[in-house]
Amino acid sequence: MFLKKKLVYFKVKSCKSNNNLVKLAIYKKLLGMEIKKNPKSNLENYSKLFMQLGLVLALFVTYVAIEKKTFDRQFGDLGDVNMNADMEEEIPITERIEPEIPKTPPPPTPEKIEVVEDEKEVEETVIESTETDENEAVEVEDIDEVEEAEEVIEDVPFTIIEDVPVFPGCKGNKKELKSCFNKQMQKHFGRKFNADLPNDLGMSPGKKRIIMLFKINKVGDIVDIRAKAPHPRLEKEAIRIIKLLPKMKPGRQRGKAVGVKYTLPMRIEVE
């Protein structure tokens, strides 16, 4: 048996065919062996199954095709757009109605005027001409001269006066004269004020304020003196000091001497 197989092997090997399957078939045939097929590899066993699957698939595709709904696309007619249609405006034709002219009533009949004869004679008034002859002399009556009333300027506050009153000894322009006046007034009060008076009156310690008001009249005299202080004796003392002021050059407004109102506030220290 072994020798037989060996001999067959050499015969198959000496075969000129290059196909291994052919060589295998020859080898098995020489040995007297039949090629056995595997029953599992037989495809005819699954033919019924494949047929059933094909029928099911065909039925499914048919069902889907029947149930699917399709709609035809329809496009409405948009019509032609006329651009000139909107631009043209229809103007309604109106009928002109003429207003009715009211009829004017006829004029009233004039009353009959009876002419009455007047026997009285009417004297005619002769209007003399007012025109004068160039050669005729014209008499001119005397015209009384009317004296203009002098403008009265009331008293002016010191802060707005055009030309301030001049304190004796002050010189310079308007601004310098105003500053000098204020300084001289403060010095005058400091020199003449009785510093022991507040202590004699038993006033409480602290700062006390005294306000003096007066007027420099048109001739430079000090008039209308008033004072405000925390004690009547201080008011009298303030009035006494203002009366001691010298005569001054009066202030002027619009080039005329006027009365000037002045206010002098002072503070004193009570220890």
Can you characterise this structure?
By secondary structure, the chain is an alpha+beta fold. Among the domains are: 1-34, no CATH class; 156-270, Fusion Protein Consisting Of Minor Coat Protein, Glycine Rich Linker, Tola, And A His Tag, Chain: A, Domain 2. 31% of the residues lie in helices and 14% in strands. The strands form two sheets. The chain has a four-stranded mixed beta sheet, with helices on one face. The chain has a two-stranded antiparallel sheet with strand order 4-5. Helix 1 runs antiparallel to helix 2. It is elongated.
| Largest beta-sheet characterization | 4 strands, mixed
Q: Categorize the overall geometry.
A: elongated
Approximate strand percentage: 5-15%
Give the proportion of residues in helices: 25-40%
How is the CATH topology of the domain at 156-270 named? Answer: Fusion Protein Consisting Of Minor Coat Protein, Glycine Rich Linker, Tola, And A His Tag, Chain: A, Domain 2
Structural class category = alpha+beta
CATH class term of the domain at 156-270: Alpha Beta
> How far from one another are the termini?
161 Å
CATH architecture field of the domain at 156-270: 2-Layer Sandwich
If you compute it from the alpha carbons, what radius of gyration comes out, rounded to the nearest whole angstrom? 73 Å
Order of helices and strands: HHHHEHHEEHEEE
> Overall pLDDT, averaged?
75
Query: How many DSSP helices?
Result: 7
Q: pLDDT below 50 for ≥5 consecutive residues: which ranges?
A: none
Number of beta-strand segments: 6
Strand order of the largest sheet: 1-6-2-3
